[in-house]
Predict the structure.
Amino acid sequence: MNSENNSKKATASEIKQLVTQIFKNNNISLPANHSGLFETFLQEEQNQALIQAIIQNQNLLMRNWQLDERIAEILQQPVRVVNGTVGKPYEAAFDLEKFNWTDITFFELQGLETVGLTYDPENKKIAGVPTQSGDIPLTFQFKVAGQPEEAPLNKKLLTLIINPDPRSLWKNLESDPNDPYGKADNVTVLAPLNDRHILVSSKRGRSHANMGSFREDDFAFSDLANGWSIVVVADGAGSAKLSRKGSALACNGIVEYFKDPASVESMTAFDELLLQHTNNPTDATQKELTRFVYNNLGKAAFQVHKQLEAFAATVGAPLKDLSATLIFALFKKYDTGYALLSFGVGDCPMAVINKDASEVTLLNWIDVGEFGGGTRFITMPEVFQSDKFATRFGFKLIPDFSYLILMSDGIYDPKFVVEANLPNITKWQEFLGDLNGQNEAGIQVELNPKNPEIEAQFSGWMDFWSPGNHDDRTLAIVF
C-alpha cells in the first residue's frame, strides 16, 4: 500500500466520473441539456465538501480491505515448522523474509517454552532441546504495516511436531526367571586371562527385551592347564525356540572339551610342532601345524554338534531348535610371540589387532549370503560335510597384539555394516575410537584393568543406539 498515492487530491475529471457513477447507481440520468447545471452542481462548496468526504471514505475503505486481505493471506499461508525429536538438539530457521512477511512490523511466537525451546530473533532460529513429544500448538501473533497501534494482534496457529525418542518406545520386559533354559538378560565381566585381561559383555537385544524374551547370545572363556587360553562366542538364532540353550551348550561345550585331560595332553604336541616350524619353516611343517589345528579344533566343533544333537533328542526337540553360530579362538604366548588358533561357523567375526593398531588380521571368514540368507549354524550336519569345512580353521603366529576381538552380529552389523569393511584397519581404528568415546552419546570405555568403572562403562557403551539394529550383542575383547 502507498499512503501518498491514496491521499492525492482527485482531479476534476475523476470527480465528475465519480459523481456520474453515483447518479447512475441511483437511477438518475443526466440529459444533455443539464450539463451546465451538473458542472455548477459540482462546483458548489457544500457539494465539494461532500465529494471529498466520499473520496476519503472510499480510500479508507480500500485501505481497510487491503489490510484485511493481507492479514487473511498471512493467516492462510501454509507454514511448516521442522519436526524435532525429544532429547535431541533442535534448530530450525524461522525467518519472516523467507515467508515474504517483510510487512510484519511486530510478532511474537508463543508455546515454544512449554517444550524447552526458544526463539532467537538475532539468528532468526528456534532452538533448544525438546522435552516432550506430541503436536505442540504454537501461536504466532503479529501486526502488519498500516494497522493502528491500538489494533489487537492477529493470531496464526502453527503446529510443531516433536517426535518421541525412539528409545522410549521400546519396552524392557524381564525374561522368565523360572524358565528351565533361562539366563541373565545382561552380563558384563572383566577377568584376567593368560597374561592379559578379557572384557566381555553380552546383552539382550531391544527386540527381545520388548517382548520379554531371552538373550540368545552367549560366551565363555577360560585359561587352560597347558598355557593356552580360550574365548568362545555363540549367537543363537532368533527363530529357533531353544537357541538360548543351544548357544550356552556350544560355548560351555567348547571350553569343557579343551579342559579335558586328553585334550590338554593332545595340545602339548603343538609346542614341538611350532618349535620345528619356527627353527626351520617348510611346507611340511606348515602342513603339520594345519593338520594339528584341523584335527583338534575340528574334534571340538564336532563334539559340540553331537552334544547339541543328544540334548535335542533328550528333550524331544528338532536339532534346528538349538541353532547357534559359533566362533572360538585359543591363544598362547611363546618366546617368538603369540600363537592363535581359531574356528568359526556363522556370521560372527574374530580379529586380532597388532601392537600399534596399524594392522588387523581376521581369524575367520563369515557365512553371509544374499539377503543375509547365507548364515550357517553349528547344528547343521552339512557344515561338517562341506568341502569348505577345512577353511573354517585358522592358525596365526604374531609377535604381539593389542586386542583380540570376538563379536556377534549384533555388534558387527551396526559397527561394520558389510563384510568388506572387516579387513580395513581404518574401520577397526574407528571402532576403537568409538569405544574410546568418539560416539554420539560420548560414552568412553577406558580399557585399563585398573579402571574401577570399566564394567559399568562397557555395559553403558553396549547400549548404543543404532536404527534398525536391535539384535542381541556380545563383544569380547582380550587386551
Summary: Residues 35 and 221 are 117 Å apart (CA to CA). The two ends are 76 Å apart (CA to CA). Residues 1-6 have pLDDT under 50 and may be disordered. DSSP finds 13 helices and 18 strands in the chain.
